[in-house]
Amino acid sequence: MIELYEKYRELIERLYISENDNFCQPHFHRHIELLYSLESGLLVTVNGVSRLMNKGDVAMIDSFDTHSYPNPQKLKSISIVIPIALCPEYKEKTKNLMLSSNFITDSDTCSEILCLIRLIQKHTYNVDGPLYLTTHYSRKDETFINGCIAALMGIILRTIPLVKRTKNQDENLTKDILIYFDEHYSEDLSLDLLAGHFGYSKYYFSKICQKILNTSITKYLNKLRILKVLEDRNCKTLTELAEKHGFNNMRTFQRAFKEVVGITASDYKANKFIL
User: Fold this and answer.
1) Which residue among 37, 85, 160, 271 sits deepest, i.e. has the most Cβ atoms within 10 Å of its Cβ?
2) Average confidence (pLDDT) over 3-7
3) Percent of the chain scoring above 70 in pLDDT
4) Domain limits at 21?
5) Number of domains, the chain
6) What are the backbone angles phi and psi of residue 271, rounded to the nearest 5°?
């Protein structure tokens, strides 16, 4: 079965909560997803492991985990997609590691997760856009929502042991490339270096990436670097942030920032009080 990279999800840096008869075909994305089953019988598959969920079970889908839940019976569940920008501590603690399991069945733990999800739902509202739904909240609730998300990630880390990330020899090349970019984005990634790492000629590798990313490697990496800058909560100057996240000069950083965000980094800093 073909697994798809959900490209549009990369463009959304907002929380997403859907309580519905949720379903999806095999795909993966960079953000984290929690699925809480409100009814028994939902078949969920994560990284090739399938489980028939009971009411109250939770599936934890980490960055780049291939997952699906077709749901022909239209069973109810809560899907919450969390941009990794909202859980930096979790990502730091799981660097080069992976969850040993993707399913939680302990009733007390699942009840704690549901309680936090309900609190988030109470203080958020959904906006149904032309392409996708996003979840919004007021500025005064931002710290509260971030606290709930941190607590959710804390429950995951407390409940599921971490193990060293292993390479699956049959892993989809698309996922391999995206994970490599995500882990090495701050380095000087030349086309020669990348092609050599993956064992292709640079011309063929460039064509592969163009098909996967729908843009050039340089533009994708610069966008990824800008997203990492936006996720960086440490108080640094723009120059320090640019250098830390892989930009060799400020002109390239400023151009990439405006292209990705739509405004200059200085204007963003003035309006969003971060950076």
Assistant:
1) 37
2) 57
3) 88
4) 4-164
5) 2
6) -95, -25
